Amino acid sequence: MRHHNPNLPTINPRLLLDEEGDMALADLLRGTGYVIQQTMLRDLTHVLISCLPWLIEGPRGGGKTALAEALADACNLPIYYLQGMEGLTLADVLYDWDREGQTQWVRQAITAGHSFEEARSGQWDREFLVLGEALAAYERAADGDFVPILICDEFDKVSEKLEDTLLQLFARGYAHVPRYGEIGVKDQTQWPVVILLSNNQRHDLSSPMRSRCLYSWLNPPTPREEMQILKARCPQASRQLLIQTVKMINAIRSLPGIIDKPGLRESITLLRGLVTSDNTELNAAVIEHHLCFLAKRRLDQENLGKSLARVEMMIELPDAGIESWVVESEEVMA
Question: Engineering a disulfide at 2: which of 79, 100, 144, 286 sits with its beta carbon 3.0 to 4.6 angstroms away?
């Protein structure tokens, strides 16, 4: 769990949407450096109004996790974070019992004169129940002071068994814990904002899980959208460097022989790296010096290294569209 900043006000994104509309929400996200696509903004409004979980699929490095984290940062809300991976257990997701604490309680209770039956019944108290990230988010939401964000990243790596254990929680807002009772919040308007992220690579999520969610496919940004995102994420970059970076990234994506095309994540990290190292323009030598940002396989680095002259030529070609988008992004940021 990542706590919110207690020194700053929290914002309920559902109330903000209801009172000021979706553009106020988009502006709030832009303040964190995240420029949301119009289709995603449309879907986010449905998610907030319906209070249902949001399943976002798309290629890696496209901004899925960044969107979820930007929403939490913009609204100063706590994040409950569940990383999909092999080996996740029920304890990680929903709950487990503190067995050692229970044993000590029983011993102390018997020593204090309680019967064995009384001692055993007391061990199923809330103080011995350790909640996993998902159920903890719903318990926190029941407090009603603010709306937490539950991010389930790389959810396609979660086992089918664990996926099934979340069905009741996502459908009803609470889970039943044997020997204890129900934990969560039945009032749907108080549910946490649940965002499931998937690269759709490991296994296909089940139909029952998909039916409990609103669904979005996050397309890679267009060059125009990428320009706006890069400007927001790296405002200190010069106009020339922005234009050349977008040209270069799109040139590389068009090259044959590159298995893992650089995504938005690579664009952002590269531009920040260029600014940090005080580069003001791109050429073949600069690109070669920054190959580690762009190509993440040995063969990709070799093929890109052989195509640097072609990439440099494409950078030098005029592109009125990209140049106008830079001006547009500057006006949006002003």
Answer: 79
